[in-house]
Write a structure and sequence with these properties.
With 182 residues, the protein is α+β, with helices and mostly antiparallel strands. The chain is 23% helix and 38% strand. A hairpin with a 2-residue loop joins strand 3 and strand 4. It is elongated and about 65 Å long.
Length: 182
């Protein structure tokens, strides 16, 4: 029987960027946007707050975009300060690259295993799905979901009792499956 696990965000991740006011490197996005119009051109920013001093920084979403080229639904969501839109935009690698920021997902996600009925089985087949592109070590997910220590999970990989089509060392942010034989 295939178990389905989901890695899901619980809040917006911390934005890693240097603060010009206090030299801190962590910003908290709160889902607020600023939209500015210059005749037929729009600029839009996602606002983030420094966790140390509270200074506001702007992450560029749109720059000198023609009003007609911006979808009305997107503009409405920005005017409404939609936190879900902030989460979607932070997932965009182009936006992160343009603004020279990285994301820190520590404490901003959880693993939903659907219960603990799989813990007593000899063989467990699991499909792990990511609700957002959250980089996580698969060994950590497997250890947390199966009630193992990380060292024990790594030992099971070496012994060939924990197998997957993807490399389980390093970080992943995409769906994968694995089989655990105890």
């Amino acid at each position: 029987m295939l178990n389905r696990w989901v890695v899901m965000p619980t809040c917006l991740p911390t934005v890693l960027r240097r603060c010009h006011a206090c030299a801190s490197d962590r910003f908290r996005p709160d889902g607020k946007f600023r939209v500015n119009a210059h005749h037929k051109l729009l600029d839009a920013w996602l606002l983030v707050l420094c966790t140390a001093c509270g200074e506001t920084a702007k992450l560029t979403v749109l720059e000198r975009a023609n009003v007609r080229s911006v979808r009305a639904e997107l503009l409405d969501r920005m005017h409404g300060n939609d936190p879900a839109l902030a989460g979607e935009l932070l997932q965009d690698p182009t936006l992160r690259r343009r603004n020279r920021v990285a994301l820190d997902w520590d404490g901003a996600w959880r693993l939903d295993t659907g219960g603990s009925d799989h813990l007593g089985r000899e063989v467990i087949d699991v499909s792990v799905r990511f609700a957002a592109r959250i980089p996580v070590r698969p060994v950590r997910l497997i250890a947390d979901g199966c009630g193992l220590s990380r060292a024990e999970a790594e030992r099971l990989i070496v012994e060939g009792k924990l197998v997957s089509a993807v490399r389980l060392s390093g970080k992943l942010s995409g769906d994968f499956t694995f089989t655990l034989k105890r």
